[in-house]
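ok so i was messing around last nite and threw this chain in just to see what happens. nothing serious, just curious
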Amino acid sequence: RVLRRYLVHLAERPVATRTMARRASALRRYFGWQVRTGGLPSDPSAGLRSPRGTGRLPQVLTDAQLNDLLDAAPTPADPDDDSNARAREQRDQAVLELLYGSGLRVSELCGLRTGDLDLDQGLVTVWGKGSKQRRVPLGDPCVHALRAWLREGRGQMVATSQVGDRVFVNLRGNPLTPRDVRRLLDRRSPIPTHPHALRHTFATHVLDGGADLRSVQELLGHEDLATTQIYTHVSRERMRDVFDRTHPRA
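result:
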């Protein structure tokens, strides 16, 4: 009963069904090991079922939605402090360009340090899940936005803080958090948008552009190719939508 309540608790939070299924599987393995080694007389997870997926495809922004987001006019942080508003504008633009331009997870972005960036080569070193390292290329708009933030806005925000070499900070001078990024999107996006939607959009656009699935897997840092394959379904859905909207006999 306690384990079921735990899954119900997860279901009430913004946790993906796949994540819930993995946690249920981990609980079953753990309690199975406890029974086998004599730690428990019986398995309390024996009747625990993994939640089934909803079959929904990940959110991918349309070209118009993406352009509206990246080109949105910033909302001033403080109308009486133009320099502070400018710094936040530069940070927000760099965050959005990096999320879409590299497909980083929001946790990976928040953990970036200045030494992870090689803007001359247009590369970012990412420490992903399980401390696995990968290098991801950066496009010109992303490099330009990062240079502007690092050269101007960041210095202002970290002037009185002990943030160290974190790339992104909030208005209090503390390291940027995933919650800060969600608030950023609430301000900038004309539609409800989760930070992961930019990662989904990155992957879908790279596949649409002709990249092979294995390359996309490496760019995203997926351990299992099956996780990346969801984007092939997204691309097919997008192609069907284009066909339905444009072909005279669709």
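not much to say yet. Residues 1-55 form one domain.
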